[in-house]
Each structure stands twice: as C-alpha cells, then as structure tokens.
Specification:
Blueprint lengths: L1 H12 L40 E3 L9 E5 L12 E2 L4 H13 L9 E5 L3 E2 L1 H5 L3 H9 L3 H17 L5 E6 L1 H16 L1 H4 L2 E7 L5 H6 L14 E3 L3 E7 L32 E2 L6 E2 L7 E3 L4 E3 L13 H4 L1 E3 L9 H18 L1
Parallel strand pairs: 2-4, 2-6, 6-7, 7-8, 9-13
Antiparallel strand pairs: 1-4, 3-5, 9-14, 10-11, 12-13
Helix pairs in contact: 4-6
Length: 346
Amino acid sequence: MKKRLLLILLYFTGYFLSCCASENQLITPALYPAVNSSSPSGVYPTDYSDNLNWLSKPVQKKYRADVFYIYPTVCTTQEKTNLCKVNNYQMRKDAQNVFKLQAEAFDTVANIYAPYYTQYNFRTFAYSNYEKIQKDTANNIQGLTDIYRALDYYFKNLNQGYPYILAGHSQGSGMLLIVLSDYMKKHPEHYKNMAAAYVIGYPVTKDFLRRNPHLKFAKKSNDTGVIISYDVQSPNKSGINVLQTENQLVINPINWKRSRKLAKAENNLGSLDEKTLKITTPGIADAKIDKKLGVIICSTANSDKYEIPLPELFGKGSFHGQDFQFYFLNLRQNAKNRLESFIKNK
C-alpha cells in the first residue's frame, strides 16, 4: 500500500524535488506540524492575512500583472473524511513541489499568488465534478470556502487593481470553474480585470458556457477575458479517463488555434523536465486537437515513460500529469501575450 501511495503521489506532483524561492516569489518555507486533520486541532477558519497560509506570496510586486494559482490534487490521505485540511503537512509539502512544475511557468511574467486550501484526496475528487463540489461546499465542506476567502483577501489587500490571470490544474481547475461561474458572476468589479483563465486538465464544456453566458472560450493566441483549457494524451490512449466528458472545448497549446492542424514539436518553445527542472528547447511534445474527444493528442512523447499508476481512473497513455510541463514555455509566452494585449486594450 505504501508503495502504491508513493506512485500516486509521484504522478500528481512529479518527482520529489527541493523547493526554493524563485526570483519574484516568497515560497513559505514554514509548514504546520503534521496533525490528524480529523482532530479538533485541524479545524479552524483559514486566515489569509497569515503568510503561513500562502504557498506563494511575493515580497513585493515586480510585474504589472498577477497570477492567482490553485494547485492540483496532492492530497493522498486515506482518512474517512477524504479531505486534507488546509494545515495538512503532507499536502503543503507536495503543493510546494508541484508549484515548480506548473505555476513557475508564469514566474517571469507576473507576480504569483497561491493559497493553501482544503482539498479532496485523489480518489474522492476523481469521482466528483465541480457541481458536486459546489454542493458539498454549501454543506460546509471547506475547500471552496478557503479559495473564496483567499480571493477576498487577495482582491482587498494584494491585487491593487492589477490585471491578473487565474491558473489551475486538475482539481485546481475544477475549483476555478466554480470561481468563474459563481464568484466572478457575483463580483464583476474583479472579473473585469481578468486577462485570462488557464483551466488546464479539467473539462470545459459547451454546456458550461451556455449556462454561464458571461464567460467565453479562447479562439486565438491573444484574446482576453477568456478561458484556456486542454488535456493531453497519447494516440494509443486506452481505458477510462474519469475527467473526460462530452462536448469538451480545447485549444492547441503550441499554435493557440482550435483547428485540427498539427503543431509540430519543433515549434514547441520548450518543455520542462520534471526530474531536473531544466527546460528542453525545442519542446519534446507536438500537439493536435481531437475534436471528437476534446483533447490534445501528443505523438512525440513516450507514453511508457509517463505510465499512470491509476489506470482505473485515467487509463493507459494519459499525459494528464504533464499538461503544464510539455508546453511550459508556450504557456509562459502565451500568458505574456494575453497580458500585453489586455493592458494595451485597457
């Protein structure tokens, strides 16, 4: 069992790597002591004026824009609650690791803010969806409440009217869908400054947009106020993918088009190696949209190298864990383009 949990953890967070502060970030090094998150000591209102509750909070603003990042599933608890509360030691430790594989794609473009938040463990979330999560939150599940509280604090005390990007992956992106459909609908004064939302590794459907007419999906490389989404798999993908559904919308993360045209790996600006944290240029991954499945097909990466330890959830040949790393510099450049376009038009 311990070996299986380790494989699961490696999939969701990449390899265990030391986490140090990047140029413009304060990565909080302090972790709360390991606690049983079902105990009374693990239950309290999350105070986002406390720096310990931020995975990333810049010491000072260096850029003209921000990124608000929500990390993916790093909770591997087997507790009956199926949750890692905000002070869970293991979750915090591994959120720091995955930050370097994903959020730092934006660290030369914007000031990155990332709160710790209560989250579902991997198996509970896999069989949930954003609507169930929203309903659970109404029944006092703390995860989304934490994110809303962090957003409230961010906009009141940290944003200072700057344009910003929302970014997430997997469970983080599921949370972002609720933020976009609910929080932003209630706060148009904040929504108007959103340059883009990178909802990666979670389905954004036509039905979702029909039910939320204030939102729109990206059509090109520099449109703003839009949602960007994709999930990656190999051509020989087989088995189930619990995060896949009908009528998914997707955009190509190399050429930033929604056509079926292949974007070759030689045009990939750079991929991040999750073992060494070094960037390979050009990137190792090509990208082609499969409109029927609503996914990106990558034919140039070796799917055996990225074997999924939970084939009953994601099937064989999924690159879900590499959605950011494969197109690392493309995401960086695209965020820069969208922010520049947003600032210019404002």
